[in-house]
Amino acid sequence: MNCTPSLNRRDFLAATGTAAVAGSNLATAAKPKPARKPNVLYLFSDQWRASDHGYAGNREVRTPNIDKLANQSVNFTHAVAGIPVCCPARASLITGQYPLSHGLYLNDLSLSPDNTSIADCFNASGYETGWIGKWHLDGQGRLENTPVERRQGFKFWRALECSHNYNNSFYYGDTGERKLWPGYDAFPQTRTAQDFLKTRGQDEKPFALFLSWGPPHAPYHTAPEKYKDMYAGKKPTLHPNVPESHQQQALRDYRGYYAHMTALDDCVGDLLKTLDETGLAEDTIVVYTSDHGDMLYSHGGVKKQQPWDESLRVPFLMRHPRKLGKTARKIDVPIDTPDIMPTLLSLCDVEVPETVEGRDFSGVITGKEKNFENVALITCPSPLGQWRRAVGGEEYRGIRTTRYTYCRDLKGPWLMYDNQKDPYQQTNLVERREHGALRKELDRILNNRLRETRDDFLSGPELIRRSGYVTGRNETVDYNIPFNPKNKTKSPLKA
Question: What is the mean pLDDT of residues 99-122?
Fold first, then answer.
């Protein structure tokens, strides 16, 4: 339920602060102490696709700790990163909005601090908030410090904008001094999160800690030797949609990708052990997910942005023993990135601001609400990076339902898959006459979603023009040049 007026971040903080003071003046000693709100430990990696986990059916990658977590969690089996690229996905997580609303539909832009963020909401409700690891929301140089006023309300801070040099990785803390993570960065980042948890073991103040790992994003072959050795000489089973011309490279990169994954699985195991040791496990919501997937040569593509499941679908596990029990349960309705903020806030009895556009799944998760139909909107507002250069990728809009994928590009209907019958999306049904009625219905649903999100499906160059962004020859923001103040995020809907 949206309980708060539509306010920007400044107004929201002022309003909630006033409310807290007024409430404290009415408190009496006789008033019963309210139940403690649950903690949140939000764990997510960069570019880990849904299919590559033991619990998801891949028996070649070693993920025993995450598999154990899945056996105790609600598992959204069709979770989707509706805009599968780093900055836009993270901005949707932080704001609960779609990319054309928050303005980050390209990489390396600076998210406006005027947004009401998920950290603002937790802070206003008495939480200690923290962020560790990759940030990628400040757009002022990937190795530059993000000052306090642009940390979107997160208080505990051990983060860097973006680096994929996992063995020579830096971070900034409270002082603004750049410091080195020793060794493979995911390990000291995890230890920092463990230390945070240990200091909160006896603290009555709840916390919301976000831990953002860089792996298993490329480069694929930089995990510690221990983990690379686990897959050396192995011949992983490739997805059948990897063209023969790409299979040798795919075999090499699968092995490195899996090595990163197993290293992160150990990190998850360490964190779960610390939750048990500190007595925090029963009342901490643990979320395990990723910002988007990785094509890894399926359909001849690499990395992200693309409308196929390897790029779109992500793991999404949620464990909370006190509210949800310890029995595994599956939900097959697609949950999209903007849905995460309202869902988490509601589960923590924290008000959801009206600026949020995502859908609240908390009732379905707790069993108080029957499973509902949901359609994930999948978009590429402006192609960038590998999607544009390597395969001539184009703008698209589409939907991912539990069963179907349907996409249009600027020329018209483009892709349609029955993912139940064709899980590797090898048969495009979009022009088949016998599926004309289905295409018409999916197109109608897509049009409704575009109207709901005020998306006129313009070209990438036109969106960039409306936003006033300064981009390079590939219509991307160049993160190697000094920050351009014109690239502060601006929604093209408000242009």
Answer: 91
Distance, in Å, from the CA atom of 463 to the CA atom of 380, rounded to the nearest integer, reads 12
On whether the CB atoms of residues 185 and 166 are closer than 8 A, the answer is yes
Query: Which carries the bigger pLDDT value, residue 384 or residue 190?
Result: 190
pLDDT tens digit string along 55-69?
999 999 999 999 999
Sheet holding 169-172, edge to edge: 178-181, 169-172, 156-160, 128-134, 207-216, 39-46, 284-290, 316-319, 74-76, 329-331
C-alpha 256/C-alpha 227 separation (Å) is 9
Q: Residue for token digits 């299919």? A: 51
At 117, list the tokens: 């963020």
Taking the mean position of all CA atoms in its chain, how far away is CA 2? 22
Q: HEC states along 309-357?
A: HHHHECCEEEECHHHHCCCCEEECCCCEHHHHHHHHHHHCCCCEECCCC
Q: What pairing do the DSSP bridges indicate for beta strands 329-331 and 74-76?
A: parallel
Q: State the residue for tokens 């600027």.
A: 410
Catalytic residue numbers, as ranges: 86, 136
- Quick check: helix, strand or coil at residue 13? helix
- The secondary structure of residue 81, as a DSSP letter, is -
Q: Give pLDDT tens digits for 203-242.
A: 678 999 999 999 999 999 999 999 999 999 999 999 999 9
Instruction: Determine the average pLDDT of the residues in 166-186.
Output: 94
Report whether pLDDT(97) > 90: yes
Please list the residues that pair with 329 across neighbouring strands: 74
Mean predicted confidence (pLDDT) in 259-287: 97
Reduced to 3 states (helix: H, G, I; strand: E, B; else coil), residue 129 is: strand
CA dist., res. 120 & res. 360, Å (int)? 18
Q: Which helix (H) or strand (E) holds 379?
A: strand 376-380
Contact predicate 337/84, CB 8 Å:
no
Reported confidence tier of residue 156, pLDDT bands at 50, 70, 90: very high
The kind and range of the H/E element at 274 are helix 247-278
Report the candidate in 196, 188, 176 with the shortest Cα–Cα distance to residue 130: 196
Distances, alpha carbon 165 to alpha carbons 184, 217, 377, 442, 478, in Å:
9, 10, 33, 42, 18
Place of tokens 């007024």: 22
- Rounded Cα gap, residues 322 and 494, in angstroms: 43
pLDDT band at residue 31 using 50, 70 and 90 as cut-offs: low
Helix (H, G, I), strand (E, B) or coil at 70: helix
What distance in Å separates the CA atoms of residue 266 and residue 284, rounded to the nearest whole number? 19
pTM of the model: 0.90
